[in-house]
Protein backbone atom coordinates (compact mmCIF):
# COMPACT_ATOMS: atom_id res chain seq x y z
CA UNK A 1 0.00 0.00 0.00
CA UNK A 2 1.06 3.63 -0.56
CA UNK A 3 0.82 6.06 2.30
CA UNK A 4 0.19 9.47 0.78
CA UNK A 5 -0.41 11.26 4.06
CA UNK A 6 0.83 10.51 7.55
CA UNK A 7 -1.44 8.10 9.35
CA UNK A 8 -3.17 6.97 6.15
CA UNK A 9 -3.23 3.32 5.11
CA UNK A 10 -4.06 4.15 1.51
CA UNK A 11 -7.30 2.14 1.80
CA UNK A 12 -10.50 3.82 0.63
CA UNK A 13 -13.80 2.43 1.93
CA UNK A 14 -17.43 3.25 1.30
CA UNK A 15 -19.97 2.45 4.02
CA UNK A 16 -23.29 1.02 2.79
CA UNK A 17 -26.52 0.38 4.67
CA UNK A 18 -26.07 -3.41 4.75
CA UNK A 19 -22.45 -3.44 5.71
CA UNK A 20 -19.05 -2.27 4.48
CA UNK A 21 -17.72 -2.58 0.97
CA UNK A 22 -14.24 -1.28 0.27
CA UNK A 23 -11.31 -1.47 -2.07
CA UNK A 24 -7.64 -0.58 -1.95
CA UNK A 25 -5.75 1.58 -4.39
CA UNK A 26 -2.83 -0.15 -6.15
CA UNK A 27 0.76 0.47 -5.18
CA UNK A 28 1.20 3.44 -7.57
CA UNK A 29 1.95 6.88 -6.07
CA UNK A 30 0.85 8.75 -9.20
CA UNK A 31 -2.54 7.02 -9.08
CA UNK A 32 -2.97 7.98 -5.43
CA UNK A 33 -2.19 11.59 -6.35
CA UNK A 34 -4.73 11.44 -9.18
CA UNK A 35 -7.33 9.99 -6.82
CA UNK A 36 -6.63 12.72 -4.28
CA UNK A 37 -7.04 15.45 -6.94
CA UNK A 38 -10.26 13.96 -8.27
CA UNK A 39 -11.73 13.65 -4.78
CA UNK A 40 -10.90 17.29 -4.04
CA UNK A 41 -12.39 18.40 -7.35
CA UNK A 42 -15.64 16.45 -7.12
CA UNK A 43 -16.16 17.25 -3.47
CA UNK A 44 -16.39 20.87 -4.51
CA UNK A 45 -19.97 21.54 -5.64
CA UNK A 46 -18.72 24.23 -7.98
CA UNK A 47 -16.85 21.54 -9.88
CA UNK A 48 -19.98 19.58 -10.68
CA UNK A 49 -21.78 22.82 -11.49
CA UNK A 50 -19.10 24.15 -13.87
CA UNK A 51 -17.91 20.91 -15.45
CA UNK A 52 -21.13 18.96 -15.93
CA UNK A 53 -24.38 20.65 -14.95
CA UNK A 54 -23.89 24.10 -16.51
CA UNK A 55 -22.70 22.80 -19.91
CA UNK A 56 -25.46 20.18 -20.06
CA UNK A 57 -28.17 22.71 -19.17
CA UNK A 58 -26.93 25.90 -20.79
CA UNK A 59 -25.42 24.66 -24.06
CA UNK A 60 -28.69 23.36 -25.57
CA UNK A 61 -30.41 26.56 -24.46
CA UNK A 62 -27.72 28.84 -25.94
CA UNK A 63 -27.67 27.00 -29.27
CA UNK A 64 -31.38 26.41 -29.73
CA UNK A 65 -32.76 29.64 -28.22
CA UNK A 66 -32.11 31.88 -31.29
CA UNK A 67 -33.73 29.35 -33.64
CA UNK A 68 -36.60 28.89 -31.20
CA UNK A 69 -37.17 32.63 -30.83
CA UNK A 70 -37.07 33.19 -34.60
CA UNK A 71 -39.32 30.25 -35.40
CA UNK A 72 -42.60 31.71 -36.74
CA UNK A 73 -44.60 28.97 -35.02
CA UNK A 74 -43.09 29.78 -31.62
CA UNK A 75 -43.67 33.53 -31.70
CA UNK A 76 -45.69 34.35 -34.85
CA UNK A 77 -44.54 37.56 -36.61
CA UNK A 78 -47.17 40.25 -37.09
CA UNK A 79 -47.64 41.22 -40.73
CA UNK A 80 -49.93 43.99 -41.96
CA UNK A 81 -50.89 43.99 -45.65
CA UNK A 82 -52.15 47.38 -46.80
CA UNK A 83 -54.07 47.20 -50.11
CA UNK A 84 -54.32 50.51 -51.97
CA UNK A 85 -55.08 48.80 -55.32
CA UNK A 86 -58.22 46.60 -55.45
CA UNK A 87 -56.54 44.53 -58.17
CA UNK A 88 -53.90 43.43 -55.67
CA UNK A 89 -56.44 41.71 -53.42
CA UNK A 90 -55.58 38.29 -54.92
CA UNK A 91 -51.98 38.66 -53.76
CA UNK A 92 -53.19 39.92 -50.38
CA UNK A 93 -55.36 36.83 -49.91
CA UNK A 94 -52.34 34.61 -50.65
CA UNK A 95 -50.38 36.43 -47.98
CA UNK A 96 -53.24 35.98 -45.53
CA UNK A 97 -53.08 32.21 -46.09
CA UNK A 98 -49.64 32.33 -44.45
CA UNK A 99 -51.46 32.20 -41.11
CA UNK A 100 -52.31 28.55 -41.74
CA UNK A 101 -48.98 27.58 -43.35
CA UNK A 102 -46.33 29.32 -41.22
CA UNK A 103 -48.31 30.59 -38.24
CA UNK A 104 -47.68 34.25 -39.09
CA UNK A 105 -50.36 36.71 -37.94
CA UNK A 106 -51.41 38.42 -41.17
CA UNK A 107 -53.96 41.24 -41.26
CA UNK A 108 -55.26 42.74 -44.52
CA UNK A 109 -56.58 46.32 -44.53
CA UNK A 110 -57.43 48.93 -47.15
CA UNK A 111 -55.95 52.43 -47.22
CA UNK A 112 -52.83 53.96 -45.70
CA UNK A 113 -51.79 54.82 -42.16
CA UNK A 114 -48.92 55.85 -39.90
CA UNK A 115 -46.49 53.05 -40.75
CA UNK A 116 -43.62 54.54 -38.72
CA UNK A 117 -45.39 54.36 -35.37
CA UNK A 118 -46.70 50.85 -36.03
CA UNK A 119 -43.20 49.51 -36.74
CA UNK A 120 -41.27 51.40 -34.06
CA UNK A 121 -43.83 50.62 -31.34
CA UNK A 122 -43.55 46.90 -32.08
CA UNK A 123 -47.23 46.50 -32.87
CA UNK A 124 -46.32 45.17 -36.33
CA UNK A 125 -43.12 43.45 -37.49
CA UNK A 126 -43.65 44.04 -41.21
CA UNK A 127 -45.97 46.15 -43.34
CA UNK A 128 -46.52 45.20 -46.99
CA UNK A 129 -48.10 47.92 -49.11
CA UNK A 130 -49.70 47.11 -52.45
CA UNK A 131 -49.79 50.62 -53.98
CA UNK A 132 -52.14 52.01 -56.56
CA UNK A 133 -51.36 50.95 -60.12
CA UNK A 134 -49.83 47.64 -59.01
CA UNK A 135 -52.31 45.40 -60.85
CA UNK A 136 -52.35 47.63 -63.94
CA UNK A 137 -48.57 47.39 -64.26
CA UNK A 138 -48.59 43.61 -63.77
CA UNK A 139 -51.44 42.96 -66.22
CA UNK A 140 -49.96 45.23 -68.89
CA UNK A 141 -46.58 43.50 -68.92
CA UNK A 142 -44.74 45.99 -66.75
CA UNK A 143 -43.28 45.56 -63.27
CA UNK A 144 -45.56 45.83 -60.27
CA UNK A 145 -43.90 47.27 -57.17
CA UNK A 146 -44.50 46.24 -53.58
CA UNK A 147 -43.27 48.32 -50.65
CA UNK A 148 -41.95 46.74 -47.43
CA UNK A 149 -41.83 48.78 -44.22
CA UNK A 150 -39.66 47.08 -41.59
CA UNK A 151 -37.26 47.56 -38.71
CA UNK A 152 -33.67 46.95 -39.94
CA UNK A 153 -32.55 46.11 -36.40
CA UNK A 154 -35.36 43.67 -35.71
CA UNK A 155 -34.71 40.01 -36.44
CA UNK A 156 -38.42 39.29 -36.53
CA UNK A 157 -38.84 41.78 -39.37
CA UNK A 158 -36.30 39.82 -41.40
CA UNK A 159 -38.12 36.56 -40.65
CA UNK A 160 -41.43 38.10 -41.71
CA UNK A 161 -39.90 39.41 -44.95
CA UNK A 162 -38.58 35.95 -45.79
CA UNK A 163 -42.02 34.41 -45.25
CA UNK A 164 -43.79 37.01 -47.41
CA UNK A 165 -41.16 36.87 -50.13
CA UNK A 166 -41.88 33.19 -50.76
CA UNK A 167 -45.50 34.07 -51.61
CA UNK A 168 -44.41 37.02 -53.74
CA UNK A 169 -41.94 34.87 -55.70
CA UNK A 170 -44.59 32.23 -56.33
CA UNK A 171 -47.04 34.90 -57.52
CA UNK A 172 -44.38 36.45 -59.76
CA UNK A 173 -43.56 33.08 -61.38
CA UNK A 174 -47.22 32.44 -62.15
CA UNK A 175 -47.56 35.85 -63.82
CA UNK A 176 -44.38 35.17 -65.81
CA UNK A 177 -45.70 31.83 -67.07
CA UNK A 178 -48.94 33.47 -68.19
CA UNK A 179 -47.02 36.13 -70.10
CA UNK A 180 -44.86 33.52 -71.79
CA UNK A 181 -47.87 31.44 -72.80
CA UNK A 182 -49.55 34.54 -74.24
CA UNK A 183 -46.67 35.12 -76.66
CA UNK A 184 -45.99 31.39 -77.18
CA UNK A 185 -42.53 31.46 -75.60
CA UNK A 186 -41.16 28.69 -73.39
CA UNK A 187 -39.52 29.24 -70.00
CA UNK A 188 -36.25 27.91 -71.39
CA UNK A 189 -36.16 30.81 -73.83
CA UNK A 190 -35.71 33.36 -71.05
CA UNK A 191 -33.21 31.14 -69.21
CA UNK A 192 -30.49 30.48 -71.79
CA UNK A 193 -27.97 29.33 -69.15
CA UNK A 194 -28.61 27.15 -66.11
CA UNK A 195 -25.87 26.19 -63.66
CA UNK A 196 -25.95 22.66 -62.25
CA UNK A 197 -23.79 22.13 -59.14
CA UNK A 198 -22.26 18.69 -58.55
CA UNK A 199 -20.52 17.86 -55.30
CA UNK A 200 -17.05 16.35 -55.24
CA UNK A 201 -16.34 14.44 -52.03
CA UNK A 202 -13.73 11.90 -51.02
CA UNK A 203 -16.45 9.30 -50.40
CA UNK A 204 -18.11 9.88 -53.77
CA UNK A 205 -21.51 10.54 -52.19
CA UNK A 206 -23.38 13.78 -51.69
CA UNK A 207 -22.98 15.70 -48.46
CA UNK A 208 -26.17 16.76 -46.70
CA UNK A 209 -26.58 20.09 -44.92
CA UNK A 210 -26.09 18.30 -41.60
CA UNK A 211 -22.82 16.81 -42.86
CA UNK A 212 -21.54 20.24 -43.86
CA UNK A 213 -22.50 21.82 -40.55
CA UNK A 214 -20.92 18.92 -38.66
CA UNK A 215 -17.66 19.18 -40.63
CA UNK A 216 -17.43 22.92 -39.98
CA UNK A 217 -18.56 23.16 -36.38
CA UNK A 218 -17.70 19.85 -34.71
CA UNK A 219 -13.86 19.94 -35.07
CA UNK A 220 -13.72 23.48 -33.70
CA UNK A 221 -16.14 22.66 -30.89
CA UNK A 222 -14.35 19.46 -29.86
CA UNK A 223 -10.95 21.14 -29.86
CA UNK A 224 -12.08 24.16 -27.87
CA UNK A 225 -13.89 22.07 -25.30
CA UNK A 226 -10.93 19.73 -24.87
CA UNK A 227 -8.38 22.51 -24.46
CA UNK A 228 -10.38 24.74 -22.14
CA UNK A 229 -12.38 22.08 -20.28
CA UNK A 230 -10.14 21.72 -17.22
CA UNK A 231 -8.34 25.07 -17.32
CA UNK A 232 -9.49 26.13 -13.85
CA UNK A 233 -8.34 22.85 -12.32
CA UNK A 234 -4.92 23.13 -13.99
CA UNK A 235 -4.44 26.55 -12.41
CA UNK A 236 -5.59 25.42 -8.98
CA UNK A 237 -3.49 22.24 -8.95
CA UNK A 238 -0.27 24.23 -9.45
CA UNK A 239 -0.59 27.93 -8.56
CA UNK A 240 -3.49 27.37 -6.17
CA UNK A 241 -1.75 24.62 -4.19
CA UNK A 242 1.50 26.57 -4.13
CA UNK A 243 -0.35 29.61 -2.77
CA UNK A 244 -2.01 27.43 -0.10
CA UNK A 245 1.38 25.79 0.69
CA UNK A 246 -0.02 22.30 0.09
CA UNK A 247 2.56 21.32 -2.56
CA UNK A 248 5.25 21.28 0.11
CA UNK A 249 3.13 18.91 2.22
CA UNK A 250 2.79 16.51 -0.72
CA UNK A 251 6.56 16.21 -1.03
CA UNK A 252 6.89 15.11 2.58
CA UNK A 253 5.41 11.79 1.36
CA UNK A 254 7.23 9.12 -0.68
CA UNK A 255 6.24 10.47 -4.08
CA UNK A 256 8.59 11.90 -6.71
CA UNK A 257 7.94 15.04 -8.73
CA UNK A 258 7.42 12.98 -11.87
CA UNK A 259 4.85 10.78 -10.13
CA UNK A 260 3.15 13.84 -8.64
CA UNK A 261 2.94 15.55 -12.04
CA UNK A 262 1.73 12.33 -13.66
CA UNK A 263 -1.04 11.98 -11.09
CA UNK A 264 -2.13 15.56 -11.57
CA UNK A 265 -2.19 15.16 -15.35
CA UNK A 266 -4.23 11.98 -15.02
CA UNK A 267 -6.83 13.81 -12.94
CA UNK A 268 -6.82 16.78 -15.32
CA UNK A 269 -7.31 14.52 -18.33
CA UNK A 270 -10.27 12.74 -16.74
CA UNK A 271 -11.83 16.08 -15.82
CA UNK A 272 -11.28 17.30 -19.39
CA UNK A 273 -12.97 14.19 -20.75
CA UNK A 274 -15.95 14.59 -18.43
CA UNK A 275 -16.31 18.28 -19.24
CA UNK A 276 -15.65 17.85 -22.97
CA UNK A 277 -17.99 14.93 -23.56
CA UNK A 278 -20.76 16.44 -21.42
CA UNK A 279 -20.54 19.76 -23.27
CA UNK A 280 -20.26 18.08 -26.67
CA UNK A 281 -23.29 15.87 -26.02
CA UNK A 282 -25.35 18.82 -24.85
CA UNK A 283 -24.21 20.87 -27.86
CA UNK A 284 -25.28 18.13 -30.27
CA UNK A 285 -28.66 18.00 -28.54
CA UNK A 286 -28.93 21.76 -28.93
CA UNK A 287 -28.02 21.61 -32.64
CA UNK A 288 -30.58 18.86 -33.31
CA UNK A 289 -33.24 20.80 -31.44
CA UNK A 290 -32.37 24.00 -33.32
CA UNK A 291 -32.54 22.19 -36.67
CA UNK A 292 -35.89 20.63 -35.82
CA UNK A 293 -37.26 23.98 -34.60
CA UNK A 294 -36.08 25.91 -37.64
CA UNK A 295 -36.97 23.44 -40.36
CA UNK A 296 -39.87 21.55 -38.82
CA UNK A 297 -38.14 18.16 -39.16
CA UNK A 298 -38.08 15.89 -36.17
CA UNK A 299 -34.80 15.37 -34.37
CA UNK A 300 -35.07 11.68 -35.10
CA UNK A 301 -34.58 12.39 -38.80
CA UNK A 302 -31.56 14.59 -38.17
CA UNK A 303 -29.68 12.10 -36.01
CA UNK A 304 -29.02 9.61 -38.84
CA UNK A 305 -27.73 12.47 -41.00
CA UNK A 306 -25.28 13.58 -38.35
CA UNK A 307 -24.19 10.05 -37.40
CA UNK A 308 -24.54 7.48 -40.13
CA UNK A 309 -23.81 3.92 -38.94
CA UNK A 310 -20.99 3.50 -41.46
CA UNK A 311 -19.19 6.55 -40.07
CA UNK A 312 -20.13 6.27 -36.41
CA UNK A 313 -16.95 4.34 -35.50
CA UNK A 314 -14.67 6.86 -37.20
CA UNK A 315 -16.55 9.78 -35.70
CA UNK A 316 -16.52 8.36 -32.17
CA UNK A 317 -12.82 7.52 -32.35
CA UNK A 318 -12.00 10.96 -33.74
CA UNK A 319 -13.95 12.76 -31.03
CA UNK A 320 -12.47 10.71 -28.18
CA UNK A 321 -8.91 11.05 -29.49
CA UNK A 322 -9.33 14.79 -30.05
CA UNK A 323 -10.75 15.34 -26.58
CA UNK A 324 -7.99 13.26 -24.97
CA UNK A 325 -5.13 14.83 -26.95
CA UNK A 326 -6.62 18.30 -26.66
CA UNK A 327 -7.15 17.92 -22.93
CA UNK A 328 -3.57 16.75 -22.35
CA UNK A 329 -2.12 19.44 -24.63
CA UNK A 330 -4.18 22.23 -23.10
CA UNK A 331 -3.40 21.07 -19.57
CA UNK A 332 0.33 20.84 -20.31
CA UNK A 333 0.35 24.39 -21.68
CA UNK A 334 -1.67 25.69 -18.74
CA UNK A 335 0.50 23.88 -16.18
CA UNK A 336 3.55 25.48 -17.81
CA UNK A 337 1.93 28.91 -17.62
CA UNK A 338 0.79 28.37 -14.03
CA UNK A 339 4.35 27.45 -13.06
CA UNK A 340 5.42 31.05 -13.71
CA UNK A 341 2.70 32.48 -11.47
CA UNK A 342 3.06 33.06 -7.75
CA UNK A 343 -0.66 33.32 -7.04
CA UNK A 344 -3.91 31.89 -8.40
CA UNK A 345 -5.00 35.27 -9.81
CA UNK A 346 -1.70 35.78 -11.58
CA UNK A 347 -1.99 32.31 -13.11
CA UNK A 348 -5.49 33.16 -14.34
CA UNK A 349 -4.09 36.10 -16.27
CA UNK A 350 -1.41 33.97 -17.94
CA UNK A 351 -3.83 31.18 -18.78
CA UNK A 352 -6.43 33.64 -20.09
CA UNK A 353 -3.95 34.94 -22.66
CA UNK A 354 -2.81 31.43 -23.62
CA UNK A 355 -6.42 30.27 -24.01
CA UNK A 356 -6.99 33.07 -26.51
CA UNK A 357 -3.88 32.01 -28.42
CA UNK A 358 -5.07 28.38 -28.49
CA UNK A 359 -8.61 29.33 -29.53
CA UNK A 360 -7.62 31.37 -32.63
CA UNK A 361 -6.38 28.39 -34.72
CA UNK A 362 -9.50 26.40 -33.84
CA UNK A 363 -11.78 29.18 -35.04
CA UNK A 364 -9.79 29.69 -38.26
CA UNK A 365 -9.93 26.03 -39.37
CA UNK A 366 -13.48 26.05 -40.87
CA UNK A 367 -12.65 29.11 -42.99
CA UNK A 368 -9.15 28.18 -44.11
CA UNK A 369 -8.60 27.43 -47.83
CA UNK A 370 -7.97 23.81 -48.73
CA UNK A 371 -4.47 24.66 -49.96
CA UNK A 372 -3.45 25.37 -46.35
CA UNK A 373 -4.65 22.03 -44.98
CA UNK A 374 -1.26 20.27 -45.31
CA UNK A 375 0.37 23.10 -43.34
CA UNK A 376 -2.39 23.27 -40.72
CA UNK A 377 -2.01 19.54 -40.10
CA UNK A 378 1.56 20.16 -38.96
CA UNK A 379 1.06 23.25 -36.77
CA UNK A 380 0.46 23.20 -33.00
CA UNK A 381 -3.19 23.11 -31.88
CA UNK A 382 -4.54 23.38 -35.45
CA UNK A 383 -3.38 19.80 -36.01
CA UNK A 384 -5.97 18.72 -33.42
CA UNK A 385 -8.82 20.42 -35.27
CA UNK A 386 -7.57 19.05 -38.58
CA UNK A 387 -7.44 15.54 -37.13
CA UNK A 388 -11.08 15.82 -36.02
CA UNK A 389 -12.03 17.20 -39.44
CA UNK A 390 -10.14 14.46 -41.28
CA UNK A 391 -11.90 11.78 -39.25
CA UNK A 392 -15.28 13.32 -40.16
CA UNK A 393 -14.75 14.37 -43.77
CA UNK A 394 -11.84 12.25 -45.03
CA UNK A 395 -11.86 9.00 -43.02
CA UNK A 396 -10.49 7.08 -45.98
CA UNK A 397 -7.46 9.33 -46.52
CA UNK A 398 -5.04 7.65 -44.14
CA UNK A 399 -2.18 9.99 -45.07
CA UNK A 400 -4.09 13.06 -43.90
CA UNK A 401 -5.40 11.35 -40.76
CA UNK A 402 -2.00 9.94 -39.76
CA UNK A 403 -0.12 13.21 -40.39
CA UNK A 404 -2.51 15.30 -38.27
CA UNK A 405 -2.58 12.65 -35.53
CA UNK A 406 1.22 12.26 -35.49
CA UNK A 407 1.74 16.02 -35.33
CA UNK A 408 -0.71 16.29 -32.44
CA UNK A 409 1.07 13.54 -30.51
CA UNK A 410 4.51 15.06 -31.13
CA UNK A 411 3.39 18.49 -29.93
CA UNK A 412 1.78 16.84 -26.91
CA UNK A 413 5.07 15.16 -26.02
CA UNK A 414 6.89 18.49 -26.38
CA UNK A 415 4.39 20.34 -24.19
CA UNK A 416 4.47 17.58 -21.56
CA UNK A 417 8.27 17.68 -21.47
CA UNK A 418 8.20 21.46 -21.11
CA UNK A 419 5.63 21.32 -18.31
CA UNK A 420 7.67 18.64 -16.51
CA UNK A 421 10.80 20.80 -16.78
CA UNK A 422 8.97 23.80 -15.39
CA UNK A 423 7.34 21.77 -12.63
CA UNK A 424 10.75 20.48 -11.60
CA UNK A 425 12.00 23.93 -10.66
CA UNK A 426 12.38 24.66 -6.95
CA UNK A 427 10.57 27.97 -7.34
CA UNK A 428 7.44 26.16 -8.52
CA UNK A 429 7.25 24.08 -5.33
CA UNK A 430 8.42 26.59 -2.77
CA UNK A 431 7.51 29.86 -4.52
Architecture overview:
The chain has 431 residues and is an alpha/beta fold. It folds into two domains: 11-67 and 208-430, no CATH class; 78-190, abc type-2 transporter like domain (abc type-2 transporter like fold). Helix content is 65%, strand content 8%. It is built from 18 helices and six strands. It has helices at residues 29-43, 45-70, 89-96, 98-101, 115-120, 134-139, 155-182, 209-228, 231-244, 246-250, 257-295, 299-306, 309-340, 344-364, 373-376, 382-393, 398-423, 426-430; strands spanning 11-16, 19-24, 78-83, 105-110, 126-130, 147-150. The strands form two sheets. A four-stranded mixed β-sheet has the order 4-3-5-6. Strands 1-2 form a two-stranded antiparallel ribbon. A hairpin with a 2-residue loop joins strand 1 (11-16) and strand 2 (19-24). The longest helix has 39 residues, at 257-295. The two termini are 31 Å apart. The model is unreliable at 1-23 and 296-307 (pLDDT under 50).
